[in-house]
Amino acid sequence: MQMKNNTAQATKVITAHVPLPMADKVDQMAARLERSRGWVIKQALSAWLAQEEECNRLTLEALDDVTSGQVIDHQAVQAWADSLSTDHPLPVPR
Questions:
Q1: Does 1 or 24 have the greater pLDDT score?
Q2: Tell me, which GO biological process terms does this entry list (predicted)?
C-alpha cells in the first residue's frame, strides 16, 4: 500500500482491462477537466459504489416493508396509474 499526499489514508492500486473506446473517453475527460486519468476513474468508481450502496439500502428497506406487510396491491396501483390520464384521477393508493 502507498501513502499519498501526506495523508493517513492508505491506497491500493487496482488494475482493470477496459475497452479502448472507454479508455479514450476517460483520457478525453481527464484532458477536458485538467485532471489525471486516475482522478477521473476514482470519481467514477466512487459514484458507482455510492449508487450501488443506495440501491442495496433501498432493496433492504423494500424487503422490510414486504416482511411487515406494508405493501400496496398491484391492481390498486394499476387503477391509479390508469386514472392519471382521465379527468378524475384516483387518489394515491395507500
A1: 24
A2: regulation of DNA-templated transcription
